[in-house]
Backbone:
């Protein structure tokens, strides 16, 4: 297997050339102290860590898997040690509150370098990169004493945290949460219930684990308005704040999964476990979801990171493996066959992976700038950013996770029979990336969030604003040499997006099934156009550089060619999404329950 | 996990109502003795065997996997025993030469019931269903003494056979075969070389294994015209024909695969193994490929069978699992949530699976009728059938295997987080079905076969004939009540197929990259239209039955509704294929080798 290489040059392209991060950072108080050298240092060091420390554990982690015996979880060889090095290097501190030991950094920088770790070893990240959500939630809602007790240890990475939402009877529908919390005389609570799908609910990395758990108080109203948030440590705190006696929490088992086998996905039993209420009673969902845009964007990035890694591995194989001859005649006449890379169909698959990896990266890092803005104190900036993220986050999460699966799947196809074998690591990519379309809300949930809650709700104007920016770009570059065909297609697609939205808006109130019937197609349409815009912008940058006779001609040419490929072969998929919208809900809703079973 | 149910009613629909198998069989000498009762008996018994004997081993087979130690292969618990029962019941004899112990039956009947076994346990089939290819090849090319030695034991199932094509350096490109065969004084040959990806190359089912092996004679010209076929038994034959001493063949290891883990995929070393030449020297590829249409159609069926099984499992979950409320208001007011099945997006995924499972079945069984005709002695009938299969086989193999993967993948999505867990069996479907897009020729290979070798080669007229039949159907039913919208779309799509083909024919000679650049899209286009035709025909049958107030109203209504869904939501995908053809090859071919690596 070819070693994973952090795509430093393409990250630099997104940062400096496409998205002008230096200008962006100059507007952020938080980033004022972070200079170009700091960015280079962080990017370079995390790249090294990803390549040298955790990438070598990618395949072995999958083969060994995580194990659970008598409530104890064992992670694969090298995982806990890699985490120790990660902590020693101080990486958990990055982007966390300085007053609790963190190192101030904008979210975007942290996300940018996360790609390397997600690509190198996503299962390891399921242990190591979970603390930020817990820290952010506690910082936003917890009492000062709770913050003092937990946050510094999470910032340093000494302790680790989890999010406990799902229960056996409830996944996407949190109305059904049954876990109970009884107030105790000591001001604490006793929490009882079973949580499933808890990543790193138990592990062998840290001496204590800080669980954030959704449960119902005795007087809770039914539904999601009766769910409260609790913080429950695996080991109770001694007076000096250190980890003491075991709390009444037990890992019953871990799941046997399609992929991410090195990650322990735990069934957790809370049996009168001691914990504290975080935030107001019955407002737990709100508190838990403070981090939702970030965690969904992080999931989009996981899809994108797998696409990048799959591309690299597939390309290496396609350059080395020989079969057949180029259609226009032999290329390697001295060899008995040409490299796979000569074959147009292999190139189609590689370019699809590449368009996804680079386009997905651009979209994720574009969204990350809005997260940075949403993190600032300037109310106007913040509110605009929140609106924009409300629109863009489900698009990025839904579309990029779907594309990530596609890219990994193409990797298997490029390698053919060898792709089906474990030793090449491509089939593992397919298995590992598959969950990104499910967790943090399935693609269906993202689609309904985007269309039902956002576009047909308060963010209709935000969509006009966003598509307006795209159309402005098109207008500005309508007569640019070489860019014209792309810009024309982009403007057309954007206008179709608007028209489609108008049609849905006019029809949906008379058909409550319409929105969920077309939501995934609507989301994918939005994803294809959003990334088309970033590809057109990338092409524009590349064109400009090529005009200046840049020494990196190969790089910019490839950027331009991938953009061209995207417009030729990927963007046309929006026609299918439009057809779905046109067809509406009737052919989905006509069949009776018994009809579904008919014929078997 | 819900037990698999053989879809007897839908098979009956295809057989009796859609494809009029009784009339078809009445034209076949081979089927003259097979009456309706025989068909019912065979279908019923194989269904029982699939449901009761091998389906229960589906999940356990995957968990246990096949193992290889010191050259000996162990299959999962119950596998060999199930094969013993299969042999005792006489199933290996079905459809094989009566003069060697077989039971005459048309290929189509055998294929029809294979679906149940492929759905119930595809990995088991990788052991049990391989003999037919070997029998057919030997019957067509081997000497009478070779036939006498091997065929009866393969027909009874006492011995089993393999096909040994692939080598470490060569997969799709058999030009690169290196395995050597030296003539010996005894008239036999000594074969030396390594073969990989050999399904059941070693196993614990049968006392002897009959390998059909491609190798080069000393005087062989290079390329595929220098490849000969040999039959090489694992154990040499005693004078009485029984299995004697070990031949110089060794299973070096088995592959660790994404799926089909219960099937032993072997690396086989032939080290001067004794064998016989089959057929003429240097003509081995032709002999090996005598069975190619059948094996490709069988692979299409594997994809379809997984789609059916995934549909059943997903539907059972969607009916039982509760989450959220129907968009138009609560359905199960007494429950705290509605069944998943109320949700339009869940129905979209289920209907996609169903449209694939039933449409794929119809396509496979439609092709199977042409195989029956190709097996007859009437030269005119046979030649027309061979032409039709030349066109249809790559379409069925390529498209149905792609759709089978899609259906299994949707199964994981319908189950959400639970779909990612092993216990529900859906993720196993994804892993198991994945190879169908690769073996027996990847989708890319099928596409180039269809477009390059067939449509732009000798089968252009066959395409006109086939599409002509579709257009005739459209003309006949253009004003049928209820069928009109479907027929209009079908005629439009068929005409677009013709136009697209004309355009390609006009362009391809000036661009050798064009055909391979668009071959997969062309193939998928052909698949969507072919199945649209079968869905329109299904709808026509269902309409007619509904008009007669059939007591099976639910079944025919569901058929009609699935057809409607297919035309609304699946067929529009052809627009993307057209766009690819329109775009041509330039955006695939522009990038240099170094460009592919740029940015990393």
Residues:
């Amino acid at each position: 297997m070819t070693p994973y290489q952090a795509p430093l040059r393409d990250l630099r392209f997104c940062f400096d050339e496409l998205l002008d991060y230096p200008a962006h950072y100059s507007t952020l108080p938080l980033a004022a102290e972070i200079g170009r050298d700091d960015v280079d240092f962080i990017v370079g060091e995390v790249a090294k860590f990803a390549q040298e420390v955790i990438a070598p554990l990618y395949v072995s982690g999958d083969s060994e898997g995580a194990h659970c015996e008598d409530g104890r979880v064992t992670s694969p060889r090298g995982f806990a040690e890699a985490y120790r090095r990660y902590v020693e290097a101080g990486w958990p501190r990055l982007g966390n509150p300085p007053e609790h030991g963190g190192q101030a950094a904008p979210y975007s920088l942290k996300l940018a370098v996360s790609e390397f770790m997600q690509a190198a070893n996503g299962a390891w990240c399921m242990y190591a990169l979970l603390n930020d959500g817990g820290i952010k939630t506690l910082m936003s809602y917890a009492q000062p004493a709770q913050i003092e007790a937990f946050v510094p240890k999470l910032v340093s990475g000494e302790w680790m945290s989890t999010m406990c939402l799902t229960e056996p009877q409830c996944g996407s529908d949190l109305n059904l949460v049954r876990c109970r919390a009884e107030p105790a005389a000591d001001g604490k609570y006793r929490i009882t219930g079973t949580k499933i799908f808890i990543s790193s609910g138990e592990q062998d990395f840290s001496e204590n684990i800080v669980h954030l758990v959704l449960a119902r108080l005795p007087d809770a109203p039914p539904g999601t308005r009766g769910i409260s948030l609790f913080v429950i440590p695996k080991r109770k705190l001694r007076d000096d704040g250190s980890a003491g006696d075991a709390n009444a929490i037990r890992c019953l088992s871990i799941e046997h999964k399609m992929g991410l086998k090195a990650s322990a996905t735990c069934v957790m039993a809370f049996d009168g476990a001691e914990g504290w209420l975080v935030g107001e009673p019955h407002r737990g969902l709100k508190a838990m979801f403070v981090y939702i845009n970030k965690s969904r964007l992080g999931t989009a990035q996981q899809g994108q990171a797998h696409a990048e890694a799959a591309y690299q591995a597939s390309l290496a194989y396609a350059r080395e493996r020989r079969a057949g001859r180029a259609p226009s005649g032999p290329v390697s006449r001295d060899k008995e066959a040409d490299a796979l890379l000569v074959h147009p169909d292999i190139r189609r698959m590689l370019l699809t992976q590449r368009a996804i990896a680079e386009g997905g990266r651009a979209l994720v890092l574009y969204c990350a700038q809005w997260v940075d803005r949403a993190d600032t104190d300037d109310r106007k900036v913040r509110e605009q950013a929140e609106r924009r993220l409300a629109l863009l986050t489900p698009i990025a999460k839904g579309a990029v996770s779907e594309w990530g699966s596609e890219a990994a799947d193409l990797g298997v196809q490029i390698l053919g029979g060898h792709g089906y074998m474990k030793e090449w690591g491509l089939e593992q990519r397919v298995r590992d990336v598959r969950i990104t379309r499910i967790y943090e809300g399935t693609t269906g949930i993202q689609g309904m969030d985007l269309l039902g809650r956002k576009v047909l709700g308060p963010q209709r104007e935000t969509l006009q604003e966003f598509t307006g920016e795209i159309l402005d770009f098109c207008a500005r570059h309508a007569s640019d040499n070489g860019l014209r065909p792309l810009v024309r297609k982009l403007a057309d697609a954007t206008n179709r997006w608007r028209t489609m939205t108008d049609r849905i808006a006019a029809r949906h109130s008379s058909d409550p099934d319409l929105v969920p019937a077309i939501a995934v197609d609507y989301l994918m349409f939005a994803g294809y156009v959003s990334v088309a815009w970033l590809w057109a912008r990338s092409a524009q940058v590349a064109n400009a550089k090529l005009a200046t006779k840049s020494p990196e001609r190969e790089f910019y040419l490839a950027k331009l060619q991938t953009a061209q490929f995207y417009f030729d072969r990927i963007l046309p998929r929006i026609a299918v999404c439009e057809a779905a919208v046109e067809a509406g809900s009737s052919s989905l809703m006509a069949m009776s329950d018994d009809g579904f079973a008919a014929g078997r």
Remarks:
- Residues 8-133 of chain B form a domain with the Butyryl-Coa Dehydrogenase, subunit A; domain 1 fold (CATH 1.10.540.10).
- The mean pLDDT of chain B is 96.
- The CA atoms of residues 191 and 410 of chain B lie 46 Å apart.
- The radius of gyration of chain B is 25 Å.
